[in-house]
Amino acid sequence: MLNLKNFVLTLLLLFILSGCSRVQLVYNQLDWLIPYYINGYVELSENQDFYLNEQVSGLLKWHCSEHLTSYANLLRNANKKFQSGAMTSAQLEEYAAQFDSYWREIMHFSHPSLVDFFHTLSGEQVNALGERFRVDNSDWYDEFKNTSAETIQQTNLEFMQNELERWFGDLSEAQVQEVRMWSTEFRALGYKGQSAREVWQQRLLQTLAQRENLTKLNAGVTLLFVEPNKLRSKDYIGLMEQNTKVTIKLISTLSSSLTIQQRQHLDSTITTISEDFDALACTPSKVTQSNQQLFVAHN
Hints:
Layout: H1 4-10, H2 12-15, H3 23-27, H4 30-39, H5 46-66, H6 68-84, H7 89-119, H8 123-144, H9 149-168, H10 173-185, H11 190-209, H12 214-226, H13 234-255, H14 260-280, H15 284-298
Helix pairs in contact: 4-5, 5-7, 5-15, 6-14, 7-12, 8-11, 9-10, 10-13, 11-12
């Protein structure tokens, strides 16, 4: 199946907002969606829940100040490339690298809060997290062993085609054929992907087992959330690089074959999303003032 997180990093523009036609609709709900997601893995105490909500609020205030205007500008720049038919593989690689740097900035900003949060977990919570991983992994194996390679390829093909059509409008038969060719070159992560997830999960549990030692906890959080590639095998990294390469090649190929109607559809979509980012962006001064108020409230 597709690894959506890495897919997002590969296709900055096409997949960052997968499944949502209005950015504001999702972004304005992240303050409760993120804690809700985490609560699905660990049942939090009232104090932990309060701390998590406070930290997510601070993260979003920082993010709306530091990143959203850049996202809007990058989208507009990419749109110009698409409209002129000048979107190349090299340019797409630059966009992917830029978004990857944004992701790393988010992880760096979140690092202190993650350390503080993990430090508060109890032994029962850590054990419950380990059990949740075990159940999820078992469910994955049960599903994967009953899924044929043909089904996986078809699922990937349909996912890609649906996403492309959401951005470009209906694809021509020749363009659909390009997507079919991509689906034969795209390599499902399969057991390698699951193995990488389990390595990450085990390292997290090992880190949490040493959470009373703040030095080790800090180093573990850095490895897990800022430098996760250090935990991945060469085979896994090679597989991801291959998938990135063939996916960027597909987008570049389609860029040169877009019809006038498809360019108009893309222009309308990107304009809407860029305007949403502009509307959501906040000024650094407001964020600084808000953070100062949070600091005063704690002291």
